[in-house]
Design goal:
Number of helices: 3
Number of strands: 6
Strand content: 15-25%
Shape: globular
Order of helices and strands: HEEEHEHEE
Helix content: 25-40%
Radius of gyration: 16 Å
CATH class of one domain: Alpha Beta
Structural class: alpha+beta
Distance between the termini: 54 Å
Largest sheet: 4 strands, mixed
CATH topology of one domain: Ribosomal Protein S8, Chain: A, domain 1
Strand order of the largest sheet: 3-4-6-5
Length: 122
Amino acid sequence: MAEKDQMIGLEENPFGEDPVVVPITDVLDLHPFSPREVKFLLEDCLEEWVRRGVAEVRIIHGKGQGVMRDTVRAFLSRSPHVRAFHPGDEWSGGWGATVVYLASVVGLGEPRPEPEKDETLG
């Protein structure tokens, strides 16, 4: 089934609701999900990212009161697929997002170096 290869979440939903179809990209927006659903979603996404050889992803959990952020980071800290993670910078969502480096991609997983300052801009 080619379509299933492009999506996750098509299996049985443990919450008894219709499955949620999530496109596989290097950005995962968790706004439509509750914290209790995140563990299952992250497990599926991490496995699929690793299978596809993705090195770096961004998880958008929002700023709010930090419940979703804490849930995501607790999960990431225990995942064997994750080499490192940190809050997003000003261009990637700030503290409303987490940038994740996957451990399974050889030679990658280190934070990107800061871009050199353009001296012409002062």
